[in-house]
Amino acid sequence: MEYPLVKACIDLDAIQHNVQHLKQMIPGQSKFMAVVKANAYGHGAIRVAQKALKSGADWLGIARLNEAVELREAGIQAPILMFGYIHPSQVRVAVDLDLVITVYEFEMAQQLSREARRSNKYVKAHLKVDTGMGRVGMIIDKTDKKPSCQAAEKQREIKQSARKKAVKEIKKILRLPGIDLNGIYTHFAAADSKDKTYTQMQIDLFTSLLEDLRKEAVDLEVCHAANSAGIIRFARSHFDMVRAGISLYGLYPSFEVDQSKVALVPAMSLTSIVTAVRNVPKGFYVSYGRTHKTQKPTRLASIPVGYADGFSRLFSSNGTMLVKGYKAPIVGRVCMDQTMIDVGDIPDVKTGDEVVLIGSQGNKTISADELAKKINTINYEIVSALTSRVERIYSDSGSVSG
After folding, report:
1. Which of 84, 85, 189, 364 has a Cα at 20 to 30 A from 124?
2. Which residues are annotated as part of the binding site for substrate?
3. Which of these is catalytic: 171, 172, 285, 288?
4. Do domains 12-254 and 268-377 have the same CATH topology?
5. Is 394 a catalytic residue?
């Protein structure tokens, strides 16, 4: 039996806490989607989805078809929205899995309609509209986001014209056979930024489109916009459903989000062990490329975690790990399977000692945010980068399981 050298310990009670506290921020009638794409941001999709649903989540969000297959095969029956692109050849599988597919434009809807009729199936769908993310979705505003005063009136006319065209396209989709379009959504580009102006503009644009649709007797059942930052910072964006991604896992979308608004609990800790300790002299080179040279006699510990586990090579000589309650600096390059730390100033480090990469030990903590800041990235990437080599261990109301 293999001994797990690197473990991501997932606290499912933290997932429950986060769902319940986030739900307190939204209207009682609004649905709550737990976004579990990318293996639940590295936390393990099946166990997180099960716990989130038991804790009050109504929907699940995923990006790719194989993620939905995994959830359905685990017996999960909740509504699932697939954000990502689906090839027409996959429609039959998606329908059999009872998924809600995202439609980006009329032409895509036409393709899905043809495939649905060919398969004698009915496709559930939500339409995605682009209010300013600039990624995918039906574009409903082609104006300059910062027009001059003289051009403001002209810009309003262009916006109205663009929305009118969008309404026409949406009504055409609604008439397509084989497609049940009962939802519409958008995504925020900067809801976690200090300046709220752009997000307010996106909310205004989405709201105006919904009003235009209702004037045409089009009242889609599920309208949604809020991501984690939207839930916490923009009550106007809650609509019929919210989508909790990073906040579900106890992490805040950015340092600019007011953390006092909701108390989140990080669900993941990442641990390993010391597998070797060696005394080395001054002038000793460490790891590939000889990028680190000891400045004095010291002790080096080898930790069996590397970039193949999702621990970025950017942490080379740039970061720390916790051993015996002390922060030990990473020295030399992170290897595929191992990383070295300097434990010369830490007493009695020995083979088998616990090493914490994310989490607490003694009175010290290393957070995903701290790691992200070290390598100029975001906490999302730190946790979702963990590969399948890292064993997930789950704690749930006192019980522990793999």
Report:
1. 189
2. 135, 336
3. 288
4. no
5. no
Annotation says 37 is catalytic: yes
Please state the CATH superfamily assignment of the domain spanning residues 268-377 in this structure: Lyase, Ornithine Decarboxylase; Chain A, domain 1 (2.40.37.10)
Non-local CB neighbours of 93 within 8 Å, separated by 6+ positions: 65, 69
- pLDDT at residue 69 in the model: 98
d(CA 34, CA 195): 26
Q: Give the right CATH number for 12-254 from 3.40.640.10, 1.20.81.30, 3.20.20.10, 3.30.1480.10.
A: 3.20.20.10
152-175 and 106-118 helices, crossing angle to 10°:
0
CA 83 from chain centre, in angstroms, equals: 12
Give Cβ neighbours of residue 34 (< 8 Å, ≥ 6 apart).
19, 48, 49, 52, 53, 57, 59, 60, 61, 244, 248
The three state secondary structure string of 97-159 is CCEEEEECCHHHHHHHHHHHHHCCCCEEEEEEEECCCCCCCEECCCCCCCCCCCCHHHHHHHH
pLDDT digits (tens, 9 = 90+) for 311-351: 999 999 999 999 999 999 999 999 999 999 999 999 999 99
Residue ranges for the binding site?
135, 336
| CA separation for the pair 274, 214 (Å, rounded) | 62
Q: Say how many residues make up the chain.
A: 402
3-state SS assignment for residue 24 = coil
CA 133, chain centre distance (Å): 16
Give CA–CA dist 346/319, Å, rounded: 16
Q: Give CA torsion, residues 41, 46, 52, 58, to 10 deg.
A: 100
**Does residue 319 contact residue 275 with C-beta atoms inside 8 Å?**
no
pLDDT < 70 positions in the chain: 1, 142-154, 398, 400, 402
Residue type at position 372? A
| Extents of the domains making up the chain | 12-254, 268-377
Q: What is the DSSP string of 231-263?
A: HHH-GGG-TTEEEESGGGGT--S-TTS-GGGS-
Q: Annotated catalytic residue: which of 37, 124, 159, 324?
A: 37
